[in-house]
Amino acid sequence: MNPENYLILAALLFAIGAVGVLVRRNALIAFLCVELMLNACNLALVAGSHITGGLDGQVASFFVMVVAASEVVVGLAIIVSIYKTRRSTSVDDANLLKL
């Protein structure tokens, strides 16, 4: 398959994730859309690495995966703590951090 097709797929996945973050009001869905955007970045990095013939994109993709894994841990902990106190994962109801 042509590597440019992977870049088009990555752009499409990133756009779907961005629309999901902007439109949806549920924190879990927004969180999953952010993960979709990170995976689209990984796909673009690996496809770009394949086009140039180097390993730079694959190494950068590995670091993006490390950041995504740490984001999962922290993000889900915050969502669970908000759900315990508010019994809702709506972004509109999550005003716990206000003074």
TrEMBL record:
TM spans (from-to): 6-23, 28-47, 59-83
UniProt name for this protein: NADH-quinone oxidoreductase subunit K
Function as written in the Swiss-Prot or TrEMBL entry: NDH-1 shuttles electrons from NADH, via FMN and iron-sulfur (Fe-S) centers, to quinones in the respiratory chain. The immediate electron acceptor for the enzyme in this species is believed to be a menaquinone. Couples the redox reaction to proton translocation (for every two electrons transferred, four hydrogen ions are translocated across the cytoplasmic membrane), and thus conserves the redox energy in a proton gradient.
Gene Ontology, cellular component aspect: NADH dehydrogenase complex; plasma membrane
Subunit architecture: NDH-1 is composed of 14 different subunits. Subunits NuoA, H, J, K, L, M, N constitute the membrane sector of the complex.
Pfam family, one: Oxidored_q2
Record localization: Cell membrane; Membrane
Record lineage: Bacteria, Bacillati, Actinomycetota, Actinomycetes, Propionibacteriales
Enzyme class: translocase
Protein topology in the membrane: Multi-pass membrane protein
Listed EC numbers: 7.1.1.-
GO MF annotation list: NADH dehydrogenase (quinone) (non-electrogenic) activity; quinone binding
PANTHER family for this protein: NADH DEHYDROGENASE SUBUNIT 4L-RELATED, NADH-UBIQUINONE OXIDOREDUCTASE SUBUNIT ND4L
Gene Ontology BP annotations: ATP synthesis coupled electron transport
Annotated source species: Propioniciclava coleopterorum
Catalytic activity, reaction form: a quinone + NADH + 5 H(+)(in) = a quinol + NAD(+) + 4 H(+)(out)
Protein family membership: Belongs to the complex I subunit 4L family.
InterPro entries with a match to the protein in the record: NADH_UbQ_OxRdtase_chain4L/K (IPR001133), NUOK/Mnh_C1-like (IPR039428)
